[in-house]
Amino acid sequence: MVNYVTKKSNKLMPSKAMKKIAHLDNKRIYKEAAKNPIKFWEKLATDGLQWEKKWTKAYEQKLPYFKWFKGGKINFSKNCLDRHLENQPDKLALVWIPEPTKEKPVKLTYRQLHEKVCKFANVLRKNKIKKGDVISIYLPMVPEALIAMLACTRIGAIHSVVFSAFSSDALKARIQDGKAKILITADGYYRRGEKEDLLTKAKQAIKSTTVKKVIVVSRLKKKLPSPKSKFLDFNKELESAEPTCEPEIMNSEDPLFILYTSGTTGKPKGVIHDTGGYATQAYWTAKWNFNLRDDDVMWCTADVGWVTGHTYAFYGPLLNGATTLIYEGSPDFPDTGRWWKIIQDNKVTVFYTAPTAIRMLQKCDPKIIKKHNLKSLRILGTVGEPIDRDAWMWYFKKVGGSRCPVIDTWWQTETGGTLINALPGIGPFIPTVSGISFPGTKHIIVDEKGKQIKKPNVTGNLVQVPPLAPGMLHGVWKNPKKYKETYWKRFKKYYDTSDGAFLTKGGLIRITGRTDDVMKVAGHRMTTAELENAINDHPRINETAVVPVPHKVKGEVPVAFVILKGKKDATKINPEQLEKEVKKLTDQKIGPTSRPAKVFIVPALPKTRSGKIMRRILKALLIDEEPKGLSTLLNPKSVEEIKGIIKSSQ
Ligand code: WTA
User: Which residue ranges have their beta carbon within 6 Å of ligand 1?
Assistant: First the structure.
């Protein structure tokens, strides 16, 4: 296996920062951390963050529960903002690039961002929000998303961000589960030259919920709905608020935010992240993965609706005092050079994106990327799904000019920050191989019985060995049973990632993908059950099975198999019309990212005798593989029938 750019990237090593802050040099860092991970993280938390009061106990565990920095007091927004005011008040904290080219970018210095956050925190306080209240945020990539989130953390409110492309039903479910008192949203945003409406969806979602007020960012200058007492204008409220706001001093273990993610059942679960532990992992992973320096402009292309947007578009860079760049729109509008132009014009140094986007841009006219100067780039990152060798090499050569290490970071919504990847300067950087555990954390591969697999090239289950990383989730919102069942039932002593992986000969970890019903469609996380529930709401559909199939650009896409209600009617149904209706339904229940690529009407689904749908068999049929395990089926005949239906559709 070839290791790309270790020599050159050695120069990039944050050895100065490491020596100064962690008192370790590059080579010793993993060894020192493994010797005593708790002491190691304690050192990092002390050196990286500003605490109001030091903890009394660094780590305490009674699995499946654990606490980091017990007794420690901290305010998150103070760590992102106030402490940079002394040294670099006029440094840019945020650069926002709007989609319409005639609009100017918005640039906010740390001083300006601090003031806006304080003002908005006062707006929240004026609206009776206090420590521990949940606030739903349904915003696109606009500066106000960051302002709103940081304002929550300033006063100890718990933010729950919902992806702006999710439907009103999806938003409502999340508002209801969190019992949010306020919804912060926008009237809309620009995407591919169109004006996307957000307010109509938001208005629908809040019906019969706990939401008392809606604070609206006027992105499209639409008139606010009435009554005035309920719908407030974000920036008007902000302008008239007081510019100073005493931060609420929080316990390290107090929740900082919840973020809903897909699990094996249809209902998304609210993953809870705490304050001190999350901040420590966000700070240090951002610093070491991306070798963040004072003069860096970091661009993480993820939307704030996902965890990557939380930790690396916003919090990681700000905790480090770097400049973060965010943008509105998409990579292919007005043309496929959009991202390259943004990198060139803003001298982006650290670029972090998903394999789906890389594969999509790889397919575009090569002249477009060549036209741009990408020399400012130092480090490239990727996240969200396995990256294939081809895409990795293209990213490395064409985007990074064979100069920049490609950091393939494995992590999850649940882990809060990255956990498995090679570090700049240390490497090795090998296409498709994520690397090794972040210093101070340990991941192993185990068989179904929980026994460690040490042999290379044998795929097993990826698990985390306690002490748990400080950024790990602390539970599922109001659902302790789900937390225990999802993450701690199979392997008891280890955190279950639900990912498959194997070790390379050199002992590095290669991720193979999910072992449960979670799909990654264009990097977006969703479950088969979520889609099945949505599709089953169609009045003509009796039962549905959704399976992910490989896709050249999106990694994988969902395909649905449906059984109709009432056999007699079946011939009267127009399959194309039904497919359209199903797509509309998933758009409405979840959002367009979940739209099935194809809908097959079938007479029966292959099931075990206990009634479990064998999605594995359906997947084999779709990818033209010989399905295995047919003998356990209740209805083996269904397999031939479905095979025929798939064939005739090709
Ligand atoms: C997958 C995204 C391969 C994995 C941060 C995980 C990856 C799920 C990688 C979590 C990677 C993430 N290589 N697979 N570098 N990074 N994954 O919660 O299956 O949206 O469990 O968090 O994405 O997705 P989530």
Answer: 261, 306-308, 383-386, 408-413, 434, 497, 499, 511, 513-514, 520, 525
